[in-house]
Amino acid sequence: xxxxxxxxxxxxxxxxxxxxxxxxxxxxxxxxxxxxxxxxxxxxxxxxxxxxxxxxxxxxxxxxxxxxxxxxxxxxxxxxx
Length: 81
Hints:
Elements: H1 10-18, H2 25-54, H3 61-80
Helix pairs in contact: 2-3
């Protein structure tokens, strides 16, 4: 697969590589896709939560926040792997 980086994003990608945060453009793109995947996963989970609320299902706020923090940490760890 071949992709073109938009001209307005090229300096950003080049800076990330120059700073040695990534070694190649492909690594930058892969990380961006991992972040997008995490965002979509979170979006789906939030949608499911709203659907459950619409069905009259609920949980204690402390439980919800603890699970959310755990899930966010899990997604962030997976993104670094």
